[in-house]
Amino acid sequence: MDDFLAARAQMALSLGFHIIFACVGMVMPFLMAFAHWKYLKTGNEMYKGLTKAWSKGVAILFATGAVSGTMLSFELGLLWPSFMKHAGPIFGMPFSLEGTAFFIEAIAIGFFLYGWDKFNKWFHWFCGFLIGLSGLASGILVVAANAWMNSPAGFDYVNGEYVNIDPIKAMFNDAWFSQALHMTVAAFCATGFAVAGVHAFLIMRKKNVDFHTKAFRIAASFAIVGAFGAPLTGDVAAKSVAERQPIKLAAMEAHFETEKGAPFILGGIPNEEKEEIKYAVKIPKLLSFLVASDFNAEVKGLKDFPRDEWPPVAVVHYAFQIMIFFGVVMILIGSVFLFSFLFKKEWLTRKWLLKLFFIATPFGYIALEAGWTVTEVGRQPWIIYGIMRTADAVTPMPGIQYSFYFFTAIFISLSMIIILLLRRQIRMVPVLYDHTDLQFNDKKKKS
Predict the structure, then answer these.
(1) pTM for the full model?
(2) From CA 358, how far away is CA 340, in angstroms rounded?
């Protein structure tokens, strides 16, 4: 493995690992705050137990996310020093603000975990809600920095120099809103399905059924909001990509020829050498309509761009197809849940519906990882789109492959630790919180 490939592989691994914690940090506190609100409004002790159970998971994943996020910040300087030398002063502001959001989140977690029966009940609830707000802000700020790499702004590039720097304009670049919006909605979808799937499994195992049923319905509700919102925000993001990075759009669709009334391509096997795609299903004129709201609009193909600026077409196309496939599956499952909730409430306890959610546990994160593959690989060969190539930004330091092996070992170790901690926490739920059912039942008897 050469140093360039090792550096890219290390960043891919680190981003792929950390994005899961980023999404959990953006969404899980809101599930926790909602359960807490239900407890304060109803007095049902089961919701208090659920809030405490979810808060322990938030704490575990926050701690591991802090480790992986810190590693990522060091990797940017270690692996891409030329990039950071020029880009740091331009897009450093969102990273600085993200650090502030991170510290607010850490303080709020401490207040929430140790504030039971010590703070005013609504201030305590606000601390939990603040965890979600700061986590959401943290994720959006990091996405804004990534969006700058896809749509550089806030400077003038003159004779190889970066001048007239405007950090505000850099942070609020043309891509930040569409990327941040789609990322946020996708995070709600992915985390909602993951949490709902775990609780659906425990319901099927007859483990503390009432407790997990309440948890399942809250998580599933968040999941379907994300699932239904994803195609809408995805459309906004796709239109933005078509305007700013038409070559990425062409790679997503494996669209080689420039044409009016371009079809939307489903599936297929692209062949870069022959510049064609085989075995694909083509929906006439739909791509033109999606990117320009005009069935006869012209869509540029890959052949309109220099060959050395093509991203890896097959990787981008397959990742895009995976994202679409799992997104559609989650919309269908969400539709079944919504129909059940509105018209067939008895279906909500049926084993087949619970099985659907259990099977769908990883679907959101698979779609999320595929979406980020489209975003990052689709930008290649640029690290700053149209300005700096990734190959020119890599460190000259030799032996990067050993850094890749070392970081891989760390991430594997972290994964094992997380699995063990979360498994232990899930097993402890009946031991810690079964008494809440008893207290609730006692209150009902006394009343």
Answers:
(1) 0.86
(2) 17
